[in-house]
Please model this.
Amino acid sequence: MPFRPTVLIALLFASMAPSTPHAGEWAKLAEDGVHDPKGPAIGLLQQPGDALPNLPGDTAGNQVHWIKALRTGVIQPRPNLDPAREDRRLDKDIYLDLYGSMPSVRFPHLAHTEWLDCTNCHDHLFLPKRGANNISMFLILQGQQCGVCHGAVAFPLTECSRCHSVPNNQAQRIVAAIEAEEAKRSAADGDKAAAPTTNSESPSKTPTDGGKAKTK
Amino acid sequence: MSAIASARLMPALLLLGVALGTGVSTRSHAEYADVVLNRNAEKEGMRPVVFPHWFHRIRFRCKVCHAELGFKMRAGSNLVTMGDIIDGKFCGACHNGEIAWAPENCDLCHSGKPGLPPGIFGGHETNGPGIW
Model:
């Protein structure tokens, strides 16, 4: 049988691959450059390497896929301290950047509202209206807009294709369909009342949410 | 390719593999999104505070601290004082001996390296001209 170097190379790479999907290791607190290795807490605080390898892996940030960790129930972080406080969710995708040189952006409200409250982004970072926000990578890379979290605590800005994830023509079709439905609905609602203003405090009452808003 | 040629190739491939392997497992230092609070701490004779986002988001969603408790989402924009914490505000909403350790465990939070500037650490993205 002829020798196949590609097999050897494949085996070599396979043997190097870490057994978990994590890209690397977590520094020990004493070696992380922010904790004082001589401080009394160093032996008491939980080490990232004790907690994070048990969560679904990722290749960036904390090397944890936080959305997967949440949705698989591996972690069950509290949504509130005051049980009377509503844990608001919105299941509505927004398509952005439909004509750029990169694929279009799909912004999933659901993944964001599973962690965040509406008021974390609305209205001081983003007006709740498509086309009203002048979103720019220049600002994002400086820590504005999406960059308030992405690049600091949420997955970093090296992960272009996680946001720029939909071919432009497909996103254009989806947005055209959404706009057609909105036009039909506003024609049906027509003269009943003047169009109510959007209100980020009550996503379930926002007329442009496609009727999918829900709280949990 | 003959077996002899492939045997000659082996060390080169191994070297390549080691080089790539070490590249993949390079560890960053601070954990992504560790926040250092040091506007007051060292002035008042304590180590800086290290707030690990990873530890807290295992246990709480962002909205608990950033909506319910009122922490602004920008390192350096929240002036957190021990007075507030003892009054149950900011960290003190949980660090009260009921949900999490009480504020008299000074060193557990004030665990940072002396001399650290306040700010958010742990990602190469945070070392650039941005204003995190």
